[in-house]
Amino acid sequence: MTITWEWRGAVRNEEINGLHAEGFDHAQAADDWTDRLSRLSLGWVTARDDQGLVGFVNVIWDGHAHAFIEDTLVASRARRRGIGKRLVAVATEHSREAGCEWLHVDFDDHLKSFYFDACGFRPTSAGLIQLSGPR
Fold this sequence. Notes:
alpha+beta
């Protein structure tokens, strides 16, 4: 499998919505990713093979020192091949080049090994307030 990586690569809403639904196990939505990415993101990384989009990660930011990894996704047919690790590495490189000093990520417990061991993040103290749903 030959993969091509692109920072701020062209993407279609249908592609990301499908990959997001698969990755986060929910019904496919009709979100306007292209608008969201253009307004809110420092950038994003796409990974493609000969069949299409197999990986995606979004990098949002505060416009200055802090960037945030969001929506790291790899298609099930392409998992366990280092694609997620490379997505994060490309995102890290471009965040650094943009002058960001910190790259943040939050994740569910089952992803600790991926983010800490494979990608080089370190544990920190953080807080979270749930703004919708049960409290």
